[in-house]
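for the record, two folds in this file. i put them one after another cuz i was lazy. first one right below, seq on top, structure tokens after. the second one comes after a little note so u can tell where it starts
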Amino acid sequence: MYPGILAQRIQSVLVLFLLAGVAARAAEDLLLEKSADAMGSTFTVQIYGTDRVAMEAAADAALAEARRIDEVLSNYKPASEWSLVNRSAAGKPLRISPELFQLLAACYEYSRESDGAFDITVGPLMKVWGFYKGTGHLPERGEVAAALARVGYRHMHLDAAASTVWFDEPGVELDPGGIGKGYAVDRMVRVLKQKGVTTALVAGSFSSIYGLGAPPDRPQGWPVGIRDPREHGKTVAEVFLKDMSMSTSGSYEKFFRAEGRMYAHIMDPRTGYPAQGSVSVSVVAPRTIDSEAWAKPYFVNGRQWAARHKPNDFRVYFCEDRTDQPCAWLQ
């Protein structure tokens, strides 16, 4: 074969290869976004893929999973299994589903490992402070003391062999607010993986987020901003999530002012009063249930406690309620 003809054929093959690569890249760049309301939040799914029909089906299945979990964990719906536990577990051991048992067992461990700063039984305090179905109000000291007597994760007893839960004190109430969204996001990601999705972002109100894989144009991961707790609309840091989660707890999410002070919804279950000293904490962790659960005790216990107790595969971004200490990642 003549050199000129060989060169032309090589050039043609290279052009076809490049065109095929562009076409494949264009197909991979197809982006689908869907949202649905569940658990008092808006859950959003963003998926990259090549088959829109399959992507639609995967997104619908993930959002359906969020709604299913809402039917199990809601403390606002009387028919939910969570509400059944709150109504009935103080009388005698109550047999519950394996899914809920495993979740409550995990919550018990979060409570124990956080020195009680995370406590799944915080429900009575959330009610007396007006954060259950409300924006909050300042209670009397006696009301706080009465609610505090019904709070404490050690009031919850779990029997793994019988799959039962039992409260040793009347009036104990579980509150899923510190764990529900993170658990739901992880379950949604699991559904997406089962449907063959490899690149997606799943968010529960953008306070609990998981980045699966990485977008085509961002090999380092999904870019997610950390909100400035003092200047709304601004961000103080950016995180790239690649097979990682991030959850944020902030005093700006729900609060009220009374007698010259601000009271936020993030409660210290040991004192009966809203936590002071922090304005926001963001936790990056492999699982969303962990990042959401640990954001609360880090917020409650403060920067130094968080620095001593965070696992090596966690990253924690801390904003304290003081002007002389800038927001920063914990070392």
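(here's the note) second protein begins now
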Amino acid sequence: MESAFTNLLELEEMAHGRLPRATFEYIAGGAEDEVSLRRNREAFGHWALRPRVLTDVAHVDTSTTVLGEKVSMPVLVAPTSFHGLVNHDGELATALGTAEAGTLMVVSTLATRTLEEIASHVPAPRWFQLYVYKDRKVTEDLVHRAAAAGYRAICLTVDAPRLGRREKDERNRFTLPPNLTIANLKPAGLDAVPPAERGSAFARYASEMLDASLTWKDVQWLKSISPLPVVVKGIMTAEDATIAVDHGVDGIVVSNHGGRQLDSTLGTLDALPEVVVAVWGRVEVYMDGGVRRGTDVLKALALGARAVLVGRSVLWGLALGGADGVRSVLDHLRSELELAMALAGCTSCAETGSALIQRVPR
């Protein structure tokens, strides 16, 4: 990686100087007043760690499993769109950096490289994030293509029946440059995002193409056609977590879409405990949103998450250093987690239970 950094919080400003304004604000921005975006980060300050001392922490193991797949740490790469905006190799570089860090990438439907290209670029476990298109044949084809290419799970995004109002994208009239398309949708002829005269071209594309009528019945439909486990991403309440488990999902990601959908939600770490209680160990629970430190990961684990997913920091690393930048971001986070675990008296992820954490009094 070309530029040295001491923590992931520095990366956004470092990338700011490298990227066109519209691209940077598309990645960094949130919906409306960006309250949810800020709360994701602020939520980590609402919880305090309770370290134990005089335990043998000469050897600390950060590895864990997700859906039975071993990974080097409980940190996965979140599905994010259009990696080609920040690096010529796009998702291919992200996949390489992720594999070198020994963890798992969730590939977006809205990738600038096909899911097959990404899978063949480097052998490693990965999941496929799915948006449901109005044309169900398009969606079904994506599911079967992912299975044929060796993906290990389908990660269904359920919090975007309509795109949140991202005002920065509207001001910038965000669209893809002519050299980039939504590569996975090329066979269906839905790969182009034409410029818009007003507002965000991508918002218009989503409105025209994605299915806003999605319900829990469609989760059952997806389960019926998918040969892969189904993880639902975008759950923020105990009520929906219970329904998800009742519909046979294999995992839940507590997520508010990085603060890019409904504004003024809880931060995801604050929403995590009620989901974990509702699920009661029947499926694995993951979390994304605002993770920037090893202590953030440790807090999520202590509150019951199996792993966290990281999005923006990976994209900043990709922008600054390609595959090496992605690997550096993930290696750094693993190093911080390993130190945090040692200082908290934990030698494995299995030891990071609820006794390790408490809510900070207001």
